[in-house]
Amino acid sequence: MDSNSTPALSSWLSIHTKNVISGFLQPLSLHPQWKLLYIVSPWISLFDSKAGLSFDDLLHRISICRTPTFVATRPPEHDWHLEAVNRLARTNRASIALIPGLHTKLFCAETTTASIAMFGSANMTSRAIDNIEFGAVILGQGTGEPICRRLFHHAAELYRLKNRKLFCTGQL
Amino acid sequence: MSDFATWFGLKADRDDFHVQTKRDFALFFARSSIDATIRRSIDEANRGRNPLKMVLFGDWGCGKTHTLRHLEYLLENTSVPKGFPVFIDLPDVMAKTRFNEAQSLLLDAIGFEKVREWVRQYNAKHSNAGQLIRDFTSSADVEKALLTLLGYGDSAQIAWEWLRGQALNANESRAVGLPPSLTQSHALVSVLRVLGIMCREFEERMLTFLVDEADNLRNVTDHDSINHWRQCLRSLSDVDNEECGVVIAGGFNDTEDMPAMLSDEQIVTRFGQSHYVSLQTFQRDEAIEFLRCLFEEWIDDAKRNALISSHSSEADGEQLQAATFPFTAEALSKFCEYCCRTGGVTRPRDIQTDLHAVLNHAIDGSRHVLSTVFLNTVIGS
């Protein structure tokens, strides 16, 4: 068992309290082909591979898989946030919406073999790796399938919030 | 918020283009040949009064659960006589999990009260009900457990647990006069089959068990447990079982990819090769048909007409028909080529994922209509 997670509550649900982001990125890293990615995180920073996948590797996988990536984040006020947003934009696959006051943390990925979603308290930042946070990871199988679907739908709604400003649009 | 429903004129009860298996089971897009196979199998089963026995398999995302739900819909609504489908998801099984796990879910899905009512009616109709049950099941214990369901208090619940394949403690076992557990494969399946008899007598329907997520059987690695599943599935799929149907669905690429209890030669022979139905991926033309059906079913006619008339300039001079909206005819064809970019084939799930992404881009680009000109700007190299 991963020391950062409780025993899986079922085949489709696990709860994470430390290094929460790895609960999403680590299983995602095992899937070869990413089809769609949503990152809803008020703050985003670079992070290392302790998160299950480093920020560089995340960008690399988005690029080589040509993954349509939809990002909702707050307008960057710090250099570290702006750098992460700029680097996501440079993959040419990320569409980024800047949403003042965004609070939700929700991450969804569709690969050729699985759907994975995570929601909780953790931002996609290096600080969240060490913080005590909460994250529920849902796999889109069995009972988890409609829940995962709903979370994808919710991520899409957040990406398109009315008060957003589009920072960039990527390509498919 | 610019939501899909408003932007593309979806019907009031739709909020995006995802097909939901539990709600859209009546719909079965671009799978006419499999639909025909399933309908024919149901008809054949009804003609011969033999229960339906089938294995549905295919890659992840190819629509197994949807197909199983569609089959459930057909049994409940169009089959003559109607079937009595009982749907379960096979849960997380462990290395040593036996068929008892499925037995408990199947009985729970039918329900304690329903089973008790069947037994009550059977007992009222047949003066020698106990003898009939004992003769059919070859088990005085199964007879006793079923008839104990008619009692009150704890005894009925204890008997129910036993029939579900759960182990009883010594006090419970003594209280109802049953062995500590129902473990023999023949006896377990005989419970399901005798319920099939009662279902046919009192519901005038064929009891049919639909088991999804059979991929989980791969987790069973203990030799004795695999054998237990194999024996139970063999009994259920056997031609001698005229009382209840069984349809199993799982994420397998082919029969060799299936867990031992499903790929076993004796099981394959019993289900019949032709009843192992592979859900193939879509090619470009099927992807187009799938999307046309989806748009027709999901988009509100009046809203579509209003959007077409107010945004026709976004078609960039291409042919814009109601049947392909929100795409132009040329753009739909191009989009389906994009969906099938990995080897010319794709799965329903892939199409919906790609559609979700491209429609997001359309909203970002303030487009209600997607032309090839627009697609060329969003589909990167």
Structure description:
The complex is a heterodimer of chains A (about 170) and B (about 375). With about 170 residues, chain A is an alpha+beta fold. Chain A has one domain (about 15-170): 2-Layer Sandwich (Endonuclease, Chain A). Chain A has five helices and eight strands, in the order E-H-E-H-E-H-E-E-E-H-E-H-E. Chain A has an eight-stranded mixed sheet with strand order 1-7-6-5-2-3-4-8, sandwiched between helices. The longest helix of chain A is centred in the C-terminal third of the chain and has 16 residues, at about 145-160. Chain A is globular, with a radius of gyration of 15 Å. In chain B, helix 6 (about 130-135) packs across helix 7 (about 140-150) and helix 7 packs across helix 8. Chain B has 18 helices and seven strands. Helices cover about 50% and strands about 10% of the residues of chain B. The two termini of chain B are about 30 Å apart. In chain B, helix 11 links the parallel strand 3 and strand 4 (about 245-250). Chain B is an alpha/beta fold. Chain B folds into two domains: about 30-280, 3-Layer(aba) Sandwich (Rossmann fold); about 285-380. Classes of the chains: A alpha+beta (about 170), B alpha/beta (about 375).
Kindly state the mean pLDDT of chain B as a whole number?
93
Q: At the fourth CATH level, what is the homologous superfamily of the largest domain in chain B?
A: P-loop containing nucleotide triphosphate hydrolases
CATH class of the largest domain in chain B: Alpha Beta
Number of strands of chain A: 8
Q: What letter string, H or E per element, gives the SSE order of chain B?
A: HHEHEHHHHHHHEHEHHEEHHHEHH
Our measurement of the CA-to-CA distance between the termini of chain B, rounded to an integer number of angstroms, reads: 30 Å
Structurally, the number of domains of chain B stands at 2
CATH class of chain A: Alpha Beta
Question: What best-fitting shape of chain A do the alpha-carbon axes yield?
Answer: globular
User: How much of the polypeptide of chain B forms β-strand, as a percent range?
Assistant: 5-15%
Assembly type: heterodimer
Portion in helices of chain B: 40-55%
What is the CATH superfamily classification of chain A?
Endonuclease Chain A
Give the N-terminus to C-terminus distance of chain A in angstroms: 37 Å
| Number of helices, where a helix is a run of at least 4 consecutive DSSP H or I residues of chain A | 5
Shape descriptor of chain B reads elongated
Biggest sheet strand order of chain A reads 1-7-6-5-2-3-4-8
